[in-house]
Amino acid sequence: MIKTALITGGSNGIGKAIAQKLAKENIEVINADTEEQEAGPENLVYRKCDVTNGEDIDALYAWLYEKQALPDVLVLNAGTGIHEKLLEGDPEKWKNTIDLNVMGILRCIRAFVPHMQEKKHGRVIFISSVAAFKPYEYGGVYSASKAALEMIAETLWLETQPYIAVTTINAGITDTGFFKGRLLKDQTVADLGMGSLLPQNIADDVWHVLSKRDGAVINRIITRPAQQLF
């Protein structure tokens, strides 16, 4: 039975939609984010946390442990995009992207999954991207970070069987703040000509994964707009 879910980056976009969906399904949800969330239901609690900071992760763990609310479900959603050519970009920005998209994930796994393993029950959901499978101009660092998640997720599955259910959700173009600053002036996601998902589409995927009976695991979901060809 799922009682508590911890979601990283749950104040905006896909993360916000997931947090709200799980709270609506009467799960106690903790949103770990650097940006404070809007007011929500009582069972959706915000906790300030930078997942790239080890001290923040330790403090979050201690707080949840004291409340006896260590999560049954870990949704690894926090991440950022970057739009730079490899020959022209800023390596410091690349480092920040990898720190959040990869090391932030690893820190959360290291902190919260051992407790699941001890209980012999838990679910870990990676929110990734179809960019993990497809290189594109200006997207080398972002795609590389998402490709790394594929290996991390598969390795976690091998290391925690048979007790931990591991799922990767690869999202296509989604209408969130992800594209802010990456499109031309006055251009919208719709102008890309490939359609777009709503954040709620991915939230529905997460609930579909969690609705499976114990012993049945969905290892991967790829959801993209019907017009998107990669």
Describe this structure in words.
There is one protein chain. With 230 residues, this protein is of the alpha/beta class. It has one domain: 3-Layer(aba) Sandwich (Rossmann fold). Helices cover 38% and strands 17% of the residues. It has helices at 13-24, 54-66, 91-119, 140-160, 199-210; strands at residues 4-8, 28-33, 44-48, 73-76, 122-129, 164-171, 220-223. Strands 3-2-1-4-5-6-7 form a 7-stranded parallel β-sheet, with helices on both faces. The protein is globular and about 45 Å long. It starts with a strand and ends in a 7-residue tail after the last strand. The model has no long low-confidence stretch (mean pLDDT 92).
Q: What layout of secondary structure does this protein have?
A:
Blueprint: E1 4-8, H1 13-24, E2 28-33, E3 44-48, H2 54-66, E4 73-76, H3 91-119, E5 122-129, H4 140-160, E6 164-171, H5 199-210, E7 220-223
Parallel strand pairs: 1-2, 1-4, 2-3, 4-5, 5-6, 6-7
Helix pairs in contact: 1-5, 2-3, 3-4
Strand content: 15-25%
Shape: globular
Rounded to an integer, what's the Rg over CA atoms?
17 Å
Q: Say how many strands there are.
A: 7
Total domain modules: 1
Fraction of residues in H or I helices: 25-40%
Q: In whole angstroms, how far apart are the ends?
A: 36 Å
By CATH, the architecture is named 3-Layer(aba) Sandwich
What is the fourth-level CATH superfamily? NAD(P)-binding Rossmann-like Domain
